[in-house]
Q: What sequence folds into this?
Protein backbone atom coordinates (compact mmCIF):
# COMPACT_ATOMS: atom_id res chain seq x y z
CA UNK A 1 0.00 0.00 0.00
CA UNK A 2 1.26 3.47 -0.85
CA UNK A 3 0.81 6.28 1.61
CA UNK A 4 0.68 9.88 0.53
CA UNK A 5 3.14 12.26 2.20
CA UNK A 6 1.34 15.30 3.63
CA UNK A 7 2.29 18.73 2.32
CA UNK A 8 5.26 20.14 4.23
CA UNK A 9 6.60 23.61 4.87
CA UNK A 10 10.18 24.83 5.04
CA UNK A 11 11.43 28.14 6.39
CA UNK A 12 8.63 30.45 5.30
CA UNK A 13 10.94 33.43 4.85
CA UNK A 14 13.73 31.63 3.01
CA UNK A 15 11.22 29.92 0.69
CA UNK A 16 9.37 33.11 -0.19
CA UNK A 17 11.02 34.56 -3.27
CA UNK A 18 8.30 37.23 -3.64
CA UNK A 19 8.83 38.68 -0.16
CA UNK A 20 12.61 38.50 -0.42
CA UNK A 21 12.74 40.12 -3.83
CA UNK A 22 10.35 42.86 -2.71
CA UNK A 23 12.45 43.63 0.38
CA UNK A 24 15.63 43.76 -1.72
CA UNK A 25 14.03 46.40 -3.93
CA UNK A 26 12.28 48.43 -1.25
CA UNK A 27 14.58 48.49 1.77
CA UNK A 28 18.18 49.77 1.80
CA UNK A 29 20.63 46.87 1.95
CA UNK A 30 22.11 47.88 5.34
CA UNK A 31 18.60 47.96 6.87
CA UNK A 32 17.73 44.64 5.27
CA UNK A 33 20.91 43.09 6.67
CA UNK A 34 19.84 44.16 10.14
CA UNK A 35 16.24 42.98 9.97
CA UNK A 36 16.75 39.79 7.98
CA UNK A 37 17.71 37.59 10.97
CA UNK A 38 14.33 38.40 12.58
CA UNK A 39 12.56 37.33 9.40
CA UNK A 40 14.58 34.14 9.08
CA UNK A 41 13.68 33.32 12.69
CA UNK A 42 9.99 34.02 12.16
CA UNK A 43 10.05 32.04 8.89
CA UNK A 44 11.53 29.10 10.78
CA UNK A 45 8.88 29.25 13.50
CA UNK A 46 6.07 29.64 10.97
CA UNK A 47 7.13 26.62 8.92
CA UNK A 48 8.21 24.56 11.95
CA UNK A 49 7.19 24.76 15.59
CA UNK A 50 4.15 27.00 15.11
CA UNK A 51 2.86 25.04 12.12
CA UNK A 52 3.16 21.74 14.00
CA UNK A 53 1.39 23.23 17.00
CA UNK A 54 -1.32 24.63 14.73
CA UNK A 55 -1.99 21.16 13.28
CA UNK A 56 -2.04 19.61 16.76
CA UNK A 57 -4.39 22.35 18.06
CA UNK A 58 -6.88 21.90 15.24
CA UNK A 59 -9.83 20.68 17.28
CA UNK A 60 -9.34 23.03 20.23
CA UNK A 61 -11.50 26.10 20.62
CA UNK A 62 -11.72 28.81 23.26
CA UNK A 63 -14.22 28.14 25.99
CA UNK A 64 -16.33 30.48 28.11
CA UNK A 65 -17.06 29.54 31.73
CA UNK A 66 -19.71 31.86 33.10
CA UNK A 67 -20.14 30.48 36.66
CA UNK A 68 -17.84 28.87 39.19
CA UNK A 69 -18.83 25.90 41.33
CA UNK A 70 -20.07 28.20 44.12
CA UNK A 71 -22.41 30.29 42.05
CA UNK A 72 -20.14 33.25 41.35
CA UNK A 73 -20.36 34.80 37.91
CA UNK A 74 -16.81 34.64 36.56
CA UNK A 75 -17.07 34.88 32.74
CA UNK A 76 -13.64 33.38 32.13
CA UNK A 77 -12.42 32.65 28.61
CA UNK A 78 -9.75 29.98 28.13
CA UNK A 79 -7.68 30.27 24.99
CA UNK A 80 -6.30 27.27 23.15
CA UNK A 81 -2.64 26.23 23.51
CA UNK A 82 -1.81 27.61 20.05
CA UNK A 83 -3.07 31.07 20.93
CA UNK A 84 -1.26 31.10 24.26
CA UNK A 85 2.01 30.36 22.49
CA UNK A 86 1.16 32.82 19.72
CA UNK A 87 0.64 35.60 22.26
CA UNK A 88 4.07 35.00 23.80
CA UNK A 89 5.84 34.75 20.44
CA UNK A 90 4.07 37.85 19.13
CA UNK A 91 5.28 39.87 22.13
CA UNK A 92 8.81 38.50 22.15
CA UNK A 93 9.25 39.03 18.43
CA UNK A 94 7.79 42.51 18.62
CA UNK A 95 5.10 42.01 16.01
CA UNK A 96 3.37 45.14 17.28
CA UNK A 97 6.42 46.74 18.92
CA UNK A 98 8.54 46.81 15.75
CA UNK A 99 6.31 49.49 14.23
CA UNK A 100 6.69 51.73 17.31
CA UNK A 101 10.33 51.23 18.27
CA UNK A 102 11.16 52.88 14.96
CA UNK A 103 14.63 51.34 14.81
CA UNK A 104 14.59 51.77 11.05
CA UNK A 105 12.41 54.83 10.65
CA UNK A 106 9.80 54.51 7.93
CA UNK A 107 11.00 50.99 7.09
CA UNK A 108 9.89 49.81 10.52
CA UNK A 109 6.28 49.44 9.36
CA UNK A 110 7.36 47.29 6.40
CA UNK A 111 9.50 45.19 8.71
CA UNK A 112 6.54 44.73 11.05
CA UNK A 113 4.21 43.79 8.18
CA UNK A 114 6.75 41.25 6.91
CA UNK A 115 6.84 39.67 10.39
CA UNK A 116 3.03 39.67 10.57
CA UNK A 117 2.81 38.14 7.08
CA UNK A 118 5.05 35.24 8.13
CA UNK A 119 3.41 34.76 11.54
CA UNK A 120 -0.29 34.97 10.59
CA UNK A 121 -0.95 31.74 8.65
CA UNK A 122 0.48 29.51 11.40
CA UNK A 123 -1.47 31.06 14.28
CA UNK A 124 -5.12 30.80 13.26
CA UNK A 125 -5.70 34.56 12.98
CA UNK A 126 -3.88 35.65 16.08
CA UNK A 127 -3.32 38.63 13.79
CA UNK A 128 -6.80 39.77 14.91
CA UNK A 129 -5.83 40.88 18.43
CA UNK A 130 -2.48 42.13 17.15
CA UNK A 131 -4.16 44.28 14.49
CA UNK A 132 -6.51 45.83 17.03
CA UNK A 133 -3.64 46.37 19.48
CA UNK A 134 -1.60 48.10 16.81
CA UNK A 135 -4.60 50.21 15.81
CA UNK A 136 -5.28 51.16 19.43
CA UNK A 137 -1.64 52.21 19.98
CA UNK A 138 -1.71 54.33 16.81
CA UNK A 139 -5.06 55.90 17.76
CA UNK A 140 -4.01 56.71 21.32
CA UNK A 141 -0.70 58.20 20.15
CA UNK A 142 -2.56 60.34 17.61
CA UNK A 143 -5.10 61.48 20.19
CA UNK A 144 -2.58 63.47 22.22
CA UNK A 145 -4.20 62.15 25.43
CA UNK A 146 -1.03 62.04 27.59
CA UNK A 147 -2.58 60.15 30.50
CA UNK A 148 -3.88 57.32 28.32
CA UNK A 149 -0.74 57.21 26.19
CA UNK A 150 1.43 56.84 29.30
CA UNK A 151 -0.91 54.30 30.81
CA UNK A 152 -1.49 51.98 27.83
CA UNK A 153 0.97 52.43 24.96
CA UNK A 154 4.02 50.98 26.78
CA UNK A 155 1.96 47.81 27.38
CA UNK A 156 0.55 47.63 23.85
CA UNK A 157 4.04 47.92 22.36
CA UNK A 158 5.90 45.78 24.91
CA UNK A 159 8.13 42.84 24.00
CA UNK A 160 7.76 41.35 27.46
CA UNK A 161 4.92 38.80 27.43
CA UNK A 162 4.17 39.61 31.08
CA UNK A 163 3.74 43.29 30.31
CA UNK A 164 2.14 42.94 26.88
CA UNK A 165 -1.51 43.98 26.56
CA UNK A 166 -3.82 43.48 23.64
CA UNK A 167 -6.73 45.75 22.82
CA UNK A 168 -10.24 45.11 21.62
CA UNK A 169 -12.08 47.29 19.13
CA UNK A 170 -15.72 47.28 20.18
CA UNK A 171 -17.83 48.83 17.49
CA UNK A 172 -20.47 46.44 16.25
CA UNK A 173 -23.85 46.49 18.00
CA UNK A 174 -27.20 44.79 17.41
CA UNK A 175 -28.09 47.67 15.10
CA UNK A 176 -25.29 46.71 12.72
CA UNK A 177 -21.64 46.32 11.96
CA UNK A 178 -21.44 48.68 8.99
CA UNK A 179 -23.65 51.58 10.04
CA UNK A 180 -21.79 52.22 13.27
CA UNK A 181 -23.50 55.60 13.73
CA UNK A 182 -26.62 53.71 14.88
CA UNK A 183 -24.85 52.46 18.01
CA UNK A 184 -27.06 52.48 21.09
CA UNK A 185 -24.50 52.28 23.93
CA UNK A 186 -24.91 55.23 26.26
CA UNK A 187 -22.18 56.97 28.28
CA UNK A 188 -23.01 58.73 31.53
CA UNK A 189 -20.51 60.87 33.43
CA UNK A 190 -19.48 59.32 36.73
CA UNK A 191 -18.93 62.17 39.19
CA UNK A 192 -17.73 59.88 42.01
CA UNK A 193 -14.96 58.24 40.01
CA UNK A 194 -13.99 61.53 38.41
CA UNK A 195 -13.53 63.22 41.78
CA UNK A 196 -11.07 60.50 42.87
CA UNK A 197 -9.04 60.43 39.63
CA UNK A 198 -5.93 62.23 38.52
CA UNK A 199 -6.54 65.83 37.42
CA UNK A 200 -7.79 66.10 33.85
CA UNK A 201 -9.32 62.63 33.73
CA UNK A 202 -13.06 62.44 33.38
CA UNK A 203 -14.63 59.09 34.01
CA UNK A 204 -17.77 57.77 32.41
CA UNK A 205 -19.92 54.71 32.79
CA UNK A 206 -21.02 52.80 29.70
CA UNK A 207 -24.35 51.01 29.28
CA UNK A 208 -25.16 48.88 26.25
CA UNK A 209 -24.55 45.70 24.31
CA UNK A 210 -21.59 45.03 22.07
CA UNK A 211 -22.54 42.33 19.64
CA UNK A 212 -19.34 41.19 17.94
CA UNK A 213 -16.26 41.87 20.04
CA UNK A 214 -13.28 40.03 18.65
CA UNK A 215 -10.62 38.64 20.98
CA UNK A 216 -12.56 39.35 24.17
CA UNK A 217 -9.58 38.33 26.32
CA UNK A 218 -7.87 41.67 25.72
CA UNK A 219 -6.86 43.82 28.67
CA UNK A 220 -8.26 47.04 27.20
CA UNK A 221 -10.64 48.16 24.48
CA UNK A 222 -11.36 51.22 22.43
CA UNK A 223 -15.07 51.57 21.96
CA UNK A 224 -17.79 53.94 20.87
CA UNK A 225 -20.64 55.17 23.04
CA UNK A 226 -23.04 58.10 22.94
CA UNK A 227 -22.69 60.58 25.80
CA UNK A 228 -26.17 61.17 27.16
CA UNK A 229 -27.92 63.97 25.33
CA UNK A 230 -25.69 63.77 22.22
CA UNK A 231 -27.39 63.70 18.80
CA UNK A 232 -27.97 60.53 16.79
CA UNK A 233 -25.44 59.36 14.17
CA UNK A 234 -21.70 58.88 14.11
CA UNK A 235 -20.95 62.46 15.12
CA UNK A 236 -22.90 62.02 18.37
CA UNK A 237 -20.73 59.08 19.40
CA UNK A 238 -17.54 59.52 21.39
CA UNK A 239 -14.41 57.40 21.50
CA UNK A 240 -13.74 55.74 24.87
CA UNK A 241 -10.88 53.79 26.43
CA UNK A 242 -11.62 51.11 29.02
CA UNK A 243 -9.80 48.44 30.97
CA UNK A 244 -11.71 45.18 31.16
CA UNK A 245 -10.67 44.01 34.62
CA UNK A 246 -9.93 45.56 37.99
CA UNK A 247 -6.81 44.91 40.13
CA UNK A 248 -8.36 41.67 41.42
CA UNK A 249 -8.93 40.42 37.88
CA UNK A 250 -12.72 40.90 38.02
CA UNK A 251 -14.53 42.18 34.96
CA UNK A 252 -15.55 45.82 35.42
CA UNK A 253 -19.31 45.63 35.07
CA UNK A 254 -19.09 43.64 31.85
CA UNK A 255 -20.82 40.35 31.29
CA UNK A 256 -19.66 37.99 28.58
CA UNK A 257 -22.98 36.65 27.36
CA UNK A 258 -21.85 34.20 24.72
CA UNK A 259 -19.05 33.30 22.32
CA UNK A 260 -20.03 33.46 18.67
CA UNK A 261 -20.38 30.22 16.72
CA UNK A 262 -18.64 31.31 13.50
CA UNK A 263 -17.84 29.75 10.11
CA UNK A 264 -14.11 30.33 10.66
CA UNK A 265 -11.64 32.19 12.89
CA UNK A 266 -12.68 29.66 15.49
CA UNK A 267 -9.68 30.30 17.70
CA UNK A 268 -10.70 33.97 18.02
CA UNK A 269 -12.90 34.33 21.12
CA UNK A 270 -15.49 36.63 19.61
CA UNK A 271 -18.03 37.56 22.23
CA UNK A 272 -21.34 39.24 22.87
CA UNK A 273 -20.95 41.61 25.81
CA UNK A 274 -23.24 43.59 28.03
CA UNK A 275 -21.84 46.74 29.60
CA UNK A 276 -23.72 47.68 32.75
CA UNK A 277 -21.91 50.70 34.10
CA UNK A 278 -18.44 49.90 32.76
CA UNK A 279 -15.93 52.62 33.73
CA UNK A 280 -14.37 54.27 30.69
CA UNK A 281 -12.49 57.41 29.77
CA UNK A 282 -12.84 59.72 26.84
CA UNK A 283 -9.97 59.47 24.39
CA UNK A 284 -10.55 62.85 22.76
CA UNK A 285 -13.65 64.97 22.83
CA UNK A 286 -17.25 64.11 23.57
CA UNK A 287 -18.27 63.65 19.91
CA UNK A 288 -17.04 62.63 16.44
CA UNK A 289 -16.37 59.08 17.60
CA UNK A 290 -16.45 57.59 14.10
CA UNK A 291 -13.90 60.06 12.81
CA UNK A 292 -11.75 59.58 15.90
CA UNK A 293 -11.67 55.80 15.63
CA UNK A 294 -10.80 55.94 11.90
CA UNK A 295 -7.01 55.65 12.52
CA UNK A 296 -7.68 52.30 14.19
CA UNK A 297 -9.81 51.18 11.25
CA UNK A 298 -7.13 52.09 8.76
CA UNK A 299 -4.47 50.11 10.64
CA UNK A 300 -6.68 47.04 10.98
CA UNK A 301 -7.52 47.31 7.28
CA UNK A 302 -3.80 47.21 6.53
CA UNK A 303 -3.49 44.08 8.69
CA UNK A 304 -6.48 42.62 6.87
CA UNK A 305 -4.67 42.97 3.55
CA UNK A 306 -1.41 41.59 4.93
CA UNK A 307 -3.34 38.66 6.39
CA UNK A 308 -5.05 38.08 3.03
CA UNK A 309 -1.77 37.82 1.13
CA UNK A 310 -0.30 35.67 3.87
CA UNK A 311 -3.12 33.11 3.58
CA UNK A 312 -2.82 33.12 -0.21
CA UNK A 313 0.89 32.49 0.12
CA UNK A 314 0.37 29.68 2.64
CA UNK A 315 -2.16 27.88 0.47
CA UNK A 316 0.18 28.05 -2.52
CA UNK A 317 3.21 26.91 -0.48
CA UNK A 318 1.27 23.83 0.59
CA UNK A 319 -0.19 23.15 -2.86
CA UNK A 320 3.21 23.52 -4.51
CA UNK A 321 4.88 21.16 -2.08
CA UNK A 322 2.08 18.65 -2.59
CA UNK A 323 2.48 18.85 -6.36
CA UNK A 324 6.02 17.54 -5.95
CA UNK A 325 4.85 14.54 -3.91
CA UNK A 326 1.57 13.53 -5.46
CA UNK A 327 1.38 11.33 -8.54
CA UNK A 328 -1.56 10.90 -10.87
CA UNK A 329 -1.84 9.37 -14.32
CA UNK A 330 1.79 8.32 -14.33
CA UNK A 331 3.62 11.48 -13.26
CA UNK A 332 3.93 13.90 -10.39
CA UNK A 333 1.38 16.73 -10.39
CA UNK A 334 4.31 19.12 -10.74
CA UNK A 335 4.90 17.63 -14.18
CA UNK A 336 1.32 18.18 -15.32
CA UNK A 337 1.07 21.31 -17.44
CA UNK A 338 -2.56 21.97 -16.51
CA UNK A 339 -1.96 21.61 -12.79
CA UNK A 340 1.03 23.94 -12.90
CA UNK A 341 -0.86 26.41 -15.07
CA UNK A 342 -3.55 26.55 -12.38
CA UNK A 343 -0.99 27.14 -9.63
CA UNK A 344 0.68 29.83 -11.75
CA UNK A 345 -2.62 31.72 -11.88
CA UNK A 346 -2.88 31.55 -8.09
CA UNK A 347 0.70 32.75 -7.82
CA UNK A 348 0.02 35.71 -10.13
CA UNK A 349 -3.01 36.83 -8.10
CA UNK A 350 -0.99 36.47 -4.93
CA UNK A 351 2.01 38.44 -6.19
CA UNK A 352 -0.23 41.23 -7.42
CA UNK A 353 -2.06 41.41 -4.09
CA UNK A 354 1.23 41.30 -2.20
CA UNK A 355 2.58 44.43 -3.89
CA UNK A 356 -0.56 46.43 -3.19
CA UNK A 357 -0.72 45.40 0.48
CA UNK A 358 2.93 46.24 1.01
CA UNK A 359 2.58 49.59 -0.78
CA UNK A 360 -0.02 50.53 1.84
CA UNK A 361 2.47 49.40 4.51
CA UNK A 362 5.16 51.58 2.93
CA UNK A 363 2.89 54.64 2.82
CA UNK A 364 1.71 54.00 6.39
CA UNK A 365 5.36 53.94 7.49
CA UNK A 366 5.97 57.24 5.73
CA UNK A 367 2.92 58.79 7.38
CA UNK A 368 4.12 57.64 10.79
CA UNK A 369 7.53 59.27 10.41
CA UNK A 370 6.21 62.40 8.72
CA UNK A 371 8.02 61.52 5.47
CA UNK A 372 4.91 61.90 3.39
CA UNK A 373 3.66 64.72 1.19
CA UNK A 374 0.08 65.75 0.60
CA UNK A 375 -0.23 63.70 -2.57
CA UNK A 376 0.93 60.52 -0.83
CA UNK A 377 -1.40 61.21 2.12
CA UNK A 378 -4.34 61.30 -0.27
CA UNK A 379 -3.03 58.20 -1.98
CA UNK A 380 -2.81 56.32 1.31
CA UNK A 381 -6.35 57.31 2.25
CA UNK A 382 -7.69 56.01 -1.08
CA UNK A 383 -5.51 52.92 -1.38
CA UNK A 384 -6.35 51.60 2.10
CA UNK A 385 -9.98 50.70 1.28
CA UNK A 386 -9.07 49.73 -2.31
CA UNK A 387 -6.38 47.37 -1.06
CA UNK A 388 -8.55 45.89 1.67
CA UNK A 389 -11.49 45.15 -0.62
CA UNK A 390 -9.40 43.88 -3.54
CA UNK A 391 -7.24 41.51 -1.49
CA UNK A 392 -10.31 40.37 0.45
CA UNK A 393 -11.88 39.08 -2.75
CA UNK A 394 -8.62 37.59 -4.03
CA UNK A 395 -7.89 35.56 -0.92
CA UNK A 396 -11.21 33.70 -0.99
CA UNK A 397 -10.81 32.85 -4.69
CA UNK A 398 -7.17 31.83 -4.36
CA UNK A 399 -7.55 29.71 -1.24
CA UNK A 400 -10.65 28.00 -2.64
CA UNK A 401 -8.79 27.08 -5.82
CA UNK A 402 -5.72 25.98 -3.85
CA UNK A 403 -7.88 23.52 -1.91
CA UNK A 404 -9.03 22.04 -5.21
CA UNK A 405 -5.37 21.43 -6.06
CA UNK A 406 -5.42 18.74 -3.32
CA UNK A 407 -8.50 17.03 -4.72
CA UNK A 408 -10.56 15.38 -1.98
CA UNK A 409 -7.83 15.93 0.62
CA UNK A 410 -8.47 19.66 0.43
CA UNK A 411 -12.01 18.97 1.63
CA UNK A 412 -11.02 16.81 4.58
CA UNK A 413 -10.74 18.50 7.96
CA UNK A 414 -7.81 16.68 9.49
CA UNK A 415 -5.48 17.79 6.70
CA UNK A 416 -5.84 21.26 8.25
CA UNK A 417 -6.63 22.65 4.78
CA UNK A 418 -10.37 23.56 4.97
CA UNK A 419 -9.61 25.90 7.87
CA UNK A 420 -7.65 28.10 5.47
CA UNK A 421 -10.76 28.75 3.43
CA UNK A 422 -12.99 29.35 6.44
CA UNK A 423 -10.49 31.83 7.85
CA UNK A 424 -10.07 33.53 4.48
CA UNK A 425 -13.81 34.12 4.26
CA UNK A 426 -13.75 36.59 7.13
CA UNK A 427 -11.35 38.91 5.35
CA UNK A 428 -13.86 40.45 2.92
CA UNK A 429 -16.38 40.76 5.76
CA UNK A 430 -14.87 42.27 8.89
CA UNK A 431 -13.24 45.68 8.98
CA UNK A 432 -15.76 46.84 6.39
CA UNK A 433 -17.40 44.65 3.77
CA UNK A 434 -16.51 44.99 0.09
CA UNK A 435 -19.49 47.25 -0.54
CA UNK A 436 -18.92 49.45 2.52
CA UNK A 437 -15.30 49.89 1.51
CA UNK A 438 -16.25 50.66 -2.08
CA UNK A 439 -18.38 53.48 -0.70
CA UNK A 440 -15.49 54.51 1.56
CA UNK A 441 -13.31 54.71 -1.56
CA UNK A 442 -15.86 57.14 -3.06
CA UNK A 443 -15.69 59.10 0.22
CA UNK A 444 -11.88 59.16 -0.03
CA UNK A 445 -12.08 60.40 -3.64
CA UNK A 446 -13.97 63.44 -2.40
CA UNK A 447 -15.42 65.98 -4.75
CA UNK A 448 -12.18 67.43 -6.09
CA UNK A 449 -10.58 64.17 -7.25
CA UNK A 450 -7.18 65.03 -5.85
CA UNK A 451 -6.89 61.51 -4.41
CA UNK A 452 -7.75 60.02 -7.81
CA UNK A 453 -5.13 62.24 -9.42
CA UNK A 454 -2.59 61.04 -6.83
CA UNK A 455 -3.42 57.44 -7.75
CA UNK A 456 -3.08 58.13 -11.48
CA UNK A 457 0.27 59.88 -10.92
CA UNK A 458 1.52 56.98 -8.81
CA UNK A 459 0.48 54.41 -11.42
CA UNK A 460 1.98 56.47 -14.24
CA UNK A 461 5.29 56.65 -12.34
CA UNK A 462 5.29 52.87 -11.95
CA UNK A 463 4.69 52.37 -15.64
CA UNK A 464 7.36 54.92 -16.60
CA UNK A 465 10.01 52.51 -15.34
CA UNK A 466 8.63 49.61 -17.40
CA UNK A 467 10.20 49.16 -20.83
CA UNK A 468 10.62 45.43 -21.37
CA UNK A 469 8.59 44.30 -24.39
CA UNK A 470 7.03 41.41 -22.50
CA UNK A 471 5.51 43.91 -20.08
CA UNK A 472 4.11 46.21 -22.77
CA UNK A 473 0.76 44.43 -22.95
CA UNK A 474 0.09 44.43 -19.18
CA UNK A 475 1.14 48.09 -19.03
CA UNK A 476 -1.39 48.90 -21.77
CA UNK A 477 -4.03 46.99 -19.81
CA UNK A 478 -3.38 49.21 -16.78
CA UNK A 479 -3.66 52.39 -18.83
CA UNK A 480 -6.84 51.26 -20.57
CA UNK A 481 -8.45 50.34 -17.23
CA UNK A 482 -7.56 53.70 -15.71
CA UNK A 483 -8.83 55.60 -18.73
CA UNK A 484 -12.06 53.66 -18.52
CA UNK A 485 -12.32 54.39 -14.78
CA UNK A 486 -11.89 58.12 -15.40
CA UNK A 487 -14.62 58.23 -18.03
CA UNK A 488 -16.91 55.96 -16.01
CA UNK A 489 -16.58 58.19 -12.95
CA UNK A 490 -17.45 61.31 -14.95
CA UNK A 491 -20.50 59.61 -16.50
CA UNK A 492 -21.63 58.11 -13.20
CA UNK A 493 -21.42 61.45 -11.46
CA UNK A 494 -23.56 62.99 -14.19
CA UNK A 495 -26.06 60.15 -13.85
CA UNK A 496 -26.37 60.76 -10.10
CA UNK A 497 -25.67 59.13 -6.75
CA UNK A 498 -27.61 55.86 -7.32
CA UNK A 499 -25.60 55.12 -10.49
CA UNK A 500 -22.35 56.07 -8.81
CA UNK A 501 -23.02 53.85 -5.82
CA UNK A 502 -24.29 50.95 -7.94
CA UNK A 503 -20.99 50.84 -9.81
CA UNK A 504 -18.76 51.59 -6.81
CA UNK A 505 -17.66 47.98 -6.26
CA UNK A 506 -16.70 47.42 -9.91
CA UNK A 507 -15.01 50.82 -10.01
CA UNK A 508 -13.02 50.09 -6.83
CA UNK A 509 -12.03 46.60 -7.89
CA UNK A 510 -10.92 47.96 -11.26
CA UNK A 511 -8.74 50.58 -9.55
CA UNK A 512 -7.43 48.00 -7.07
CA UNK A 513 -6.55 45.44 -9.71
CA UNK A 514 -5.09 48.01 -12.12
CA UNK A 515 -2.88 49.38 -9.34
CA UNK A 516 -1.76 45.87 -8.45
CA UNK A 517 -0.84 45.22 -12.06
CA UNK A 518 1.13 48.47 -12.32
CA UNK A 519 3.05 47.62 -9.15
CA UNK A 520 3.72 44.11 -10.37
CA UNK A 521 5.00 45.43 -13.73
CA UNK A 522 7.35 47.83 -11.94
CA UNK A 523 8.67 45.06 -9.74
CA UNK A 524 9.02 42.69 -12.70
CA UNK A 525 11.12 45.23 -14.58
CA UNK A 526 13.33 45.76 -11.52
CA UNK A 527 13.67 42.03 -10.95
CA UNK A 528 14.77 41.45 -14.53
CA UNK A 529 17.39 44.18 -14.28
CA UNK A 530 18.67 43.45 -10.79
CA UNK A 531 18.08 39.75 -10.27
CA UNK A 532 18.00 38.51 -13.88
CA UNK A 533 14.70 36.95 -12.93
CA UNK A 534 11.70 36.84 -15.27
CA UNK A 535 9.34 35.13 -12.79
CA UNK A 536 7.54 38.35 -11.85
CA UNK A 537 7.28 39.24 -15.54
CA UNK A 538 5.41 36.01 -16.18
CA UNK A 539 3.18 36.72 -13.19
CA UNK A 540 2.44 40.23 -14.51
CA UNK A 541 1.53 38.91 -17.96
CA UNK A 542 -0.74 36.29 -16.47
CA UNK A 543 -2.37 38.68 -13.99
CA UNK A 544 -2.85 41.29 -16.74
CA UNK A 545 -4.92 38.76 -18.67
CA UNK A 546 -7.07 37.83 -15.66
CA UNK A 547 -9.72 40.53 -15.65
CA UNK A 548 -8.45 43.96 -14.65
CA UNK A 549 -11.20 46.22 -15.95
CA UNK A 550 -14.44 45.15 -14.32
CA UNK A 551 -16.36 48.26 -15.28
CA UNK A 552 -17.94 47.11 -18.49
CA UNK A 553 -21.03 45.73 -16.80
CA UNK A 554 -21.42 48.94 -14.81
CA UNK A 555 -21.50 51.02 -18.03
CA UNK A 556 -24.71 49.45 -19.15
CA UNK A 557 -26.45 50.51 -15.95
CA UNK A 558 -25.74 54.23 -16.34
C1 LIG B 1 -6.71 40.14 10.46
C2 LIG B 1 -6.64 41.57 10.50
C3 LIG B 1 -7.87 42.33 10.82
C4 LIG B 1 -8.28 42.13 12.20
C5 LIG B 1 -9.53 42.78 12.58
C6 LIG B 1 -9.98 42.28 13.81
C7 LIG B 1 -11.23 42.58 14.42
C8 LIG B 1 -12.42 42.82 13.70
C9 LIG B 1 -13.43 43.42 14.55
C10 LIG B 1 -14.31 44.25 13.74
O1 LIG B 1 -14.77 43.84 12.71
S1 LIG B 1 -14.56 45.79 14.36
C11 LIG B 1 -15.73 46.50 13.32
C12 LIG B 1 -15.21 47.01 12.07
N1 LIG B 1 -16.22 47.92 11.60
C13 LIG B 1 -16.01 48.66 10.53
O2 LIG B 1 -15.01 48.57 9.88
C14 LIG B 1 -17.10 49.63 10.20
C15 LIG B 1 -17.51 49.59 8.77
N2 LIG B 1 -18.24 50.82 8.43
C16 LIG B 1 -17.58 51.89 7.95
O3 LIG B 1 -16.38 51.88 7.77
C17 LIG B 1 -18.43 53.06 7.62
O4 LIG B 1 -17.92 53.65 6.45
C18 LIG B 1 -18.41 54.13 8.73
C19 LIG B 1 -18.81 53.49 10.05
C20 LIG B 1 -17.04 54.75 8.90
C21 LIG B 1 -19.44 55.17 8.31
O5 LIG B 1 -19.94 55.88 9.41
P1 LIG B 1 -20.61 57.30 9.28
O6 LIG B 1 -21.07 57.69 10.62
O7 LIG B 1 -21.61 57.31 8.16
O8 LIG B 1 -19.32 58.14 8.90
P2 LIG B 1 -19.14 59.48 8.08
O9 LIG B 1 -20.09 60.54 8.58
O10 LIG B 1 -19.12 59.22 6.62
O11 LIG B 1 -17.68 59.81 8.54
C22 LIG B 1 -17.40 60.42 9.76
C23 LIG B 1 -16.01 61.01 9.65
O12 LIG B 1 -15.06 59.92 9.68
C24 LIG B 1 -15.78 61.75 8.35
O13 LIG B 1 -14.84 62.78 8.61
P3 LIG B 1 -15.31 64.31 8.86
O14 LIG B 1 -15.99 64.30 10.20
O15 LIG B 1 -14.01 65.08 8.88
O16 LIG B 1 -16.21 64.67 7.72
C25 LIG B 1 -15.11 60.69 7.49
O17 LIG B 1 -14.33 61.25 6.46
C26 LIG B 1 -14.24 60.01 8.52
N3 LIG B 1 -13.88 58.65 8.11
C27 LIG B 1 -14.70 57.61 7.92
N4 LIG B 1 -14.00 56.53 7.58
C28 LIG B 1 -12.71 56.91 7.55
C29 LIG B 1 -12.62 58.26 7.89
N5 LIG B 1 -11.48 58.93 7.95
C30 LIG B 1 -10.36 58.26 7.65
N6 LIG B 1 -10.36 56.96 7.31
C31 LIG B 1 -11.50 56.25 7.24
N7 LIG B 1 -11.47 54.96 6.92
A:
Amino acid sequence: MQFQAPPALGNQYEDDSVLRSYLRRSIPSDVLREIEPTLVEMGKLAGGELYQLQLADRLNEPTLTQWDAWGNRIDRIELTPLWRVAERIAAEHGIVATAYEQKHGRFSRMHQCALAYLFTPSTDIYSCPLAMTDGAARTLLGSGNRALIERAVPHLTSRDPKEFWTSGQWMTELTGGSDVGKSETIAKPDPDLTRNSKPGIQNWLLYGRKWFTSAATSQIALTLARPEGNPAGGRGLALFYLEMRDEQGRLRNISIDRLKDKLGTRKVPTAELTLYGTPAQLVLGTADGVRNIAPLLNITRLWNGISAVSLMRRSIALALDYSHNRSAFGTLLSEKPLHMDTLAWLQAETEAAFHLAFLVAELTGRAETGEIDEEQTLLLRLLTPLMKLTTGKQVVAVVSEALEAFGGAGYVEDTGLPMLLRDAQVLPIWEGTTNVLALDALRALGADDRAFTALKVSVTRCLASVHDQRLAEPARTVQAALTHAVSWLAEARKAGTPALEAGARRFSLTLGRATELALLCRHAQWSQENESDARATKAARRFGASGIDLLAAADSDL
Remarks:
- The longest strand covers residues 271-282.
